[in-house]
What we know:
The complex is a heterodimer of chains A (258) and B (249).
Chain A: H1 25-51, H2 60-72, H3 77-102, H4 113-141, H5 153-161, H6 164-191, H7 198-228, H8 234-243
Helix pairs in contact in A: 1-3, 1-6, 3-4, 4-6, 6-7
Chain B: E1 5-13, E2 20-28, H1 35-44, E3 72-75, E4 78-81, E5 94-97, E6 104-106, E7 109-110, H2 114-121, H3 142-152, H4 159-162, H5 176-187, H6 195-201, H7 216-220, H8 227-248
Parallel strand pairs in B: 1-5
Antiparallel strand pairs in B: 1-2, 3-4, 3-5, 6-7
Amino acid sequence: MASASSSAPVLEHGVAPLRAGQGISFVLRRLHSLTGIIPVGAFLFEHILISNSTAIGQNGPSAYARQVSFLANLPLVFFLELFGIWIPIAYHALYGFYIWYRGEGNTVSYPWTGNWMYTLQRWTGAIAFIYIVWHTYTMRFTGIDLHDHPLASFGKVQGEVIHTPLFLFYVVGLVAASWHFAYGIWLFSAKWGIVSGDKAQKRLLRACLVFFLLLCGVGLASLYSFRSRPIADDDQNRAMIQSHEKPGGQATDRKGAQ
Amino acid sequence: MADKTVILKIKRQLTPNGKSYWEEFSVPYRPNMNVISALMDIAADPVTRDGKATTPITYDSNCLEEVCGSCAMLINGKARMACSALIDQLEQPIRLEPFSKFPVVRDLATDRSVIFENLKAVKAWVPIDGTYDLGAGPRMTAEDQEAAYPLSRCISCCCCMEACPQFNEDTGFVGAATISQVRLFNTHPTGKALQRERLAALMGDGGIQECGYAQNCVEVCPKDIPLTKSISEVGGQVMKQALGDMLRR
């Protein structure tokens, strides 16, 4: 910037022009977009529509236990969790916060639907993230280990959702995550050029809305099932666990809780 | 009717790095006024509403018919062209501010040269320079013409960029207008020659990936350019090239 300041004063601020050929933000941002669908979104799909749905109905507790047992016994389950769930979610969330930090929401000046959705996508992401961190902590890393004791699954979830505040937190987390994913599919399709036209985008938006309602509906039905069934008390749990285990595998060990 | 007036609150700034301040003006109402004609009235008699003599308002304008792109400013908080902002359709007092994301030159005049830099970065032109006559170019189908014409109406006013939540100093986002011009020139049978370079440029920092699809651009565009469709179309072209290069280069 060695220009002479004789005529016009040098304007030092303002948005920088495009840096063609520079940086890797393109790859990072598209990776953020992709991880939202696969594997994070795909996992949400599995979690709500396949796993949680087994908890609905008369055979809820045993069907749910079978499903948890199936998942817990997948080969290399730790690595599946690590590379299929934890790292992608952490990347999607942290890069997402970075995206949020750099954007300047302006719904006050431009209160239009798309702009509200832009802001909502950030808030639902944050709410879902807080919920997921808590949910993973309580379900996966504290209390009875469900990988070792899948039969205790129904009771463990029930132990949380019978408390109304926690139940409401589940509902908020469910709605936020479902919306974030459903609208995320729409955003993904729009940004990657899969669905570009006005009419086609409107049609897809309607489909995403239906998908959102489906996720919420099944999620709520399973939550209701956890909440409405007679409480599986600890003794009952223990009995179920012990009847399925070899001697030595003590079910009473509550790792790390309290 | 005679004493009906128009009240304007104008954000002023005397120098590029000076402090901004507000001044209020009252001009006599006439039928069919627009913001530019109100600013002309102020220039003819630069006195604030409380009787203080001041300087005329500095603003860019040229064609007065929404085709030159000069007179873009914030009118009641929204990015739009002053020439097509009719006083009858505006809530009073009418707030006029310079664009918030571009350096102020003075008052309502801002330096929007960044869009020119962006258009150069994506080579938004049809390459026909050479040492001999290239002859007539290939024909464009009527369908392509119909898709391209709306894109060619861009007046580089920068409204789409001002209204975009992603266009700011942190992201250095290129903005919808430039992306739409990439689509226009990639549609052109001769302009296509530079498609690879254009798409590669849009993968740089501040490129198309910064779009958050808030869709304000398409709402504020005074020329009704299908900007979000352009972003999606070019987004697809960029992805195709990126993935293709990953496998074939």
